[in-house]
Design goal:
- The protein is α+β, with helices and mostly antiparallel strands.
- About 25% of the residues lie in helices and about 40% in strands.
- The chain has 5 helices and 14 strands.
- It has helices spanning about 10-20, 70-90, 150, 160-175, 180-190; strands at about 5-10, 30-35, 40, 45, 55-65, 95, 100-105, 105-120, 120-135, 200-205, 210-215, 220-225, 230-235, 240.
- The strands form 3 sheets. It has a 7-stranded mixed β-sheet, sandwiched between helices. It has a 5-stranded antiparallel β-sheet with strand order 13-12-11-10-14, with no helix packed on it.
- α2 (about 70-90) packs across α4 (about 160-175) and α2 packs across α5 (about 180-190).
- The longest helix is centred in the first third of the chain and has 17 residues, at about 70-90.
- The protein is globular and about 55 Å long.
Length: about 240
Amino acid sequence: MNIIKLNAIDSTNTYLKLLASETQIPDGTIVVAEDQEKGRGQRGNGWVARKGQSLTFSIYKRLGQLKVENQFVLSMAVALALAEGLDKLGVPKIKIKWPNDIMSADKKIGGILIENILEGSNIKQSIIGIGINVNETDFTQLPQASSLRLQIGEKQDLERVFSYLTDSLVYILGKLSDQDFMKLRLLYEDRLFQKDKISVFENTQGARFNGIIKGISDSGEIMIETENAASEQYRLKEIKMIY
C-alpha cells in the first residue's frame, strides 16, 4: 500500500488529482493529511476537519472499464467498505444516508466525495475522498453530527481507525471488477438510512413532503414512495432529507 502522509494540505482530493496528472502513481495510492484546510463534501459543501481529531484521506483508483452510467457502483462499494470497517471498530448502527453520508444511529460521522476522470464513455480514474469524525466532542454548531468517540463512548486511536478503514477499502476496491451490481445494490439498500420509514424531504423549490425510501434505481437515483403511493426517482441535488 502506497501511503503519502502530509502535515497540512488544502484538500487531499485536489492534491492527489494534481499528482495523478503529473506522474504515474500506483493504483491504490492513499494521501492522508493531519490537517485539511479546505475539505469538500457533496453539494459543494465544505467538510470541517479538526487537526489531530479527524481522519481525512483520499485514494487513487485506476478503473478503465467502468462505464460512466455505472459510476454508482463505485459509490456503493466505497460506502459499504467504510460501513464494514466501522462495524469492526465497534461503531453502533452504521447506516448510509443516500448517496454517501456515513451515519451512526441518526448522527453523521463521515462522508465521501468521489471525483472521476473520464476517457470517452469510461471512467479512467477516480479520486475517492473520505472524511471521518474520530475524536471530536464539540458539535454545538452541527447538532446532526457526531464522532466515533461519542458514539462508541471512548477515545479512539487514529492510526487504528485509519488501518481498519483502508484495509476494508483496498480489499473491496481490489475486487470491484468482480462485483455484481445487484448484490451490491441489495447490500447498499440494506444499509440505507431511514429505508421503509416515513421521512420528510425537500425539493429544489423548497417544498416539503412526506415519503418513504424504497431503494435505489439501476443508475443510483433514490426511489421514494410518496403519500399518493406514486414512486418517484431523484438524482443528487434534486432532493434532500430533513431529519
